[in-house]
Amino acid sequence: xxxxxxxxxxxxxxxxxxxxxxEEELSAITSxxxxxxxxxxxxxxxxxxxxxxxxxxxxxxFGSTVFNVISKDPSSPTPELSIGVSFNHVAIYxxxxxxxxxxxxxxxxxxxxxxxxxxxxxxxxxRSPLQFETDKVVEIAKLxxxxxxxxxxxxxxxSALLRESLHMIGEDQPVQIMTxxx
Length: 182
Hints:
It is built from five helices and seven strands. The chain is α+β, with helices and mostly antiparallel strands. It has two domains: 40 residues, no CATH class; 104 residues, Roll (PH-domain like). A hairpin with a 2-residue loop joins β5 and β6. The protein starts with a helix and ends in a 13-residue tail after the last helix. The N terminus is likely disordered.
């Protein structure tokens, strides 16, 4: 909602800029919502849900658990950030934004944890450590650990299946391994 009605500044900043007419802003928002609502009026709820899910699935953070944090990195674009923890990666977002500032695959994360209470650190290959203040240290760590453990289990299952397949072929037959380039 905050983004829809515009950036509100602190009182001292507001005196330097023309004041927004809140009623006009809210009227414009209401008008935009009503216009969009009229476009989908008559849509069956099941169709609306399918359309909604198609849009949501395109969000890079779909399936992530998002935690609000405070960056301890002085070079951070803003101290108030969010961490999105998903099955494939950890993403850093500006609060209330949908596009990540950075995304780190678990393969690039060397370690993570809490060196102090309410301080969470992620060490990523090729960059300085990420440090965040949060009261959700335990929740973030448990979720990252669970995802990494599942990735490792999945890789072990695939490796075992590959070994079993190669064993079934036998050693006297040539093996052709096909690769896919991305």
